[in-house]
Amino acid sequence: MGVLIVAASVALVVMIVQRAGKAIPAAPSGPPVEMSLGQPAGSRIAGIAPGFEGRVAVWVQRPDGERLVILDTRNGRALGEIRLGD
Fold it and tell me: Residue 34: pLDDT above 80?
């Protein structure tokens, strides 16, 4: 039973090392893309979450309510907004 525990522990460590060593894909090269959320004065960014296919979700707190703005990082455009709350 002790040998089985040691073997399982070694296998777990090997698996963690292999996964940690995988290369992270490089960011696309080229000039930086300027982005604008186009939100009114008094707005602030409360959070950012990565999406898929070059998209990012930005949680914006505005004076008139909260919004979730979806951005396309490849061209810097806002794809849409989702109103949160009422």
Answer: no
| Alpha-helix residue ranges (DSSP H) falling in 21-83 | none
Mean pLDDT of the chain: 80
At 19 the pLDDT is: 75
The order of strands in the sheet holding 44-50 is 44-50, 55-62, 65-72, 77-84
- Listed by start position, the domains of the chain span 1-84
Q: How far is CA 80 from CA 2, 46, 65, in A?
A: 57, 17, 16
Which residues have a Cβ under 8 Å from the Cβ of 77 and sit 6 or more positions away? Answer: 71
Looking at residue 21, what is its pLDDT?
66
CATH number of the domain located at residue range(s) 1-84 in this protein: 3.10.450
From the list 31, 49, 43, the residue with the least C-alpha distance to 67 is 43
